[in-house]
Each structure stands twice: as C-alpha cells, then as structure tokens.
Amino acid sequence: MFYPIYLDLHGRPCLVVGGGPIATGKVRGLVEAGALVTVVAPAVGADVVAWHESRVIVWHEREFVAEDLDGQFLVYAATDDREVNARIYRLADQANRVANAVDDLDHCNFIAPAVARQGVVQVAISTAGSSPALAKQIRDQVQHEVLTPEVAALAEYLGSWRSEVKRHIDTYQRRQDLWEGVLEGCVPGLLANGQQPRADEAMREYLRRAAAPHDPHARCVVRDERPDVCRACKGV
Fold first, then answer.
1. CB neighbour list of residue 82: distance below 8 Å, 6 or more residues apart
2. Which residues fall within 8 angstroms of residue 54, CB to CB, at 6 or more apart?
3. CA-CA distance, 9 to 108, in Å (whole number)?
C-alpha cells in the first residue's frame, strides 16, 4: 500500500525526463502546482516549447545524464523507453528523491492518483497502481456526482471562517464539533440559495454559543419554528 499525501511543490525543483504526451501532462500538473520544472529530452511537444520560451520551465534539449538529478525534489521518468525510465528511477531513489517511472509500478516510490477537482476541493483516488482505469472511472463519478460548484463555494466559505473559529474556540476537538455541526445545519443550504448574509449571521451565532456553556434548549438561529436543531445551534 501507498501512504496518501498531498505535497506542497510550490517553489520546489522538479524534473521531468521525456518529451511525449505523458511527459507533457506531468509537466502541466507540476507547473499548476507552482513547481520549478526542468525538462530533459531531445525533442518535446509544442506546449513544452511554449512554456520554455515564456520561461515558465527550463528545457534541456538533450538526453538525460545523472547530474540532472542534482538538487531535484521530485523526478518523473517519462521517456518511451522502459529501461531508461527504470535506470533514472534507480538513480533517483538512491539519491533519496521522490521518483516515479511512468506506468512501471516496480520503479516508483510514489504514484500519482486520479484527481477530481472543483475549486479548492480535490479528491484523489488510487487503486495502489493495480487499475489506473478503475481509478479514473471512480474519479469521473466523483467529479460529476459529488464535486458540484456548491461544494467548492462551501469550502471557500468555511475556509474564510477558520481563523475566526480558531480565535474563539481553544481546542481542536471543540472546533471539530463546531464544524461538524455547521455542516449538518443550515449554512450549506443558505449558501446554495445565495443567502450569504444569513449564513454569516448563523456563523456568528454559532461562535457565540460555542464559546458559552452548552444550552440543551437552544433553538435554530435561522428557522425559529424548528425544534430540532443542529449541534452548532446548540453550541456543542
């Protein structure tokens, strides 16, 4: 099994060896993550040429040499020669680099998952390399059925309240209880209906109640007629 993790590659040097469509896809993902990308290949596609000419990446127009690994944090071996890819991986692994030879599970110390994205929300799906096609199928299902624009907007909104919640609520467990109460309550629906001012009002009341002793008789801050209220309303 692989350990799931999200890497912060912003400003980190990353190497892609190869110039075909698969290599180009790896370059694109690294650029989007803010990495400092170097490509080594005798020939590359138009996208890589354009990125190089605009100084988004560095391209060395030649074959790979072992010194290309110097200073790199992450390495993709993505040539069309499996033996070359395996050699690059072995050198990178010996140098304690995060390294992947594409489509060769035996020569990877990490694998790239299939990723569904909507705004700031990302869901990574992996089958531990056993079936990339299945991972992509699940990815597509999550993308179309789960990651709606409303989910992305909700994530952005909750993120905007994190510092305020930390300022008022002093322990991780109490903050977790509050967030779970918020998610089971009225805020997601208010945002989905374009009622952010009411969502803000609810959040302020949630924080006030969370900082006060638990009130088992609390009522919903948005719908007074509701006797059954979420944990956030009750100040849990």
1. 101, 104
2. none
3. 18
User: Rounded distance, CA 77 to CA 135, Å?
Assistant: 21
Residue 69 token pair: 């690994």
The whole model's pTM is what?
0.80
What's the rounded Cα separation, in Å, for the pair 116 and 140? 7
- Tens of pLDDT along 26-42? 999 999 999 999 999 99
Burial of 117 (0-12, 13-18, 19+ CB in 10 A): middle
What CATH number belongs to 13-112?
3.40.50.720
59 forms beta bridges with: 39
The answer to whether the beta carbons of residues 18 and 36 sit under 8 Å apart is no
Token couple for 221: 């801050």
CA distances from 73 to 37, 67, 155, 209 (A): 10, 14, 30, 46
Q: What's the rounded Cα separation, in Å, for the pair 172 and 161?
A: 15
Structure tokens at 149: 């624009």
Tell me the residue type at 172: Y
Please name the amino acid found at residue 209. Answer: R
Q: Write out the two tokens for 144.
A: 């179309």
How far apart are the C-alpha atoms of 109 and 7, rounded to whole Å? Answer: 14
User: 102-159: per-residue pLDDT in tens?
Assistant: 999 999 999 988 899 999 999 999 998 888 899 999 999 999 999 999 999 999 999 9
DSSP state of 221: S
| Domain coordinates in residue numbering, the chain | 13-112, 148-236
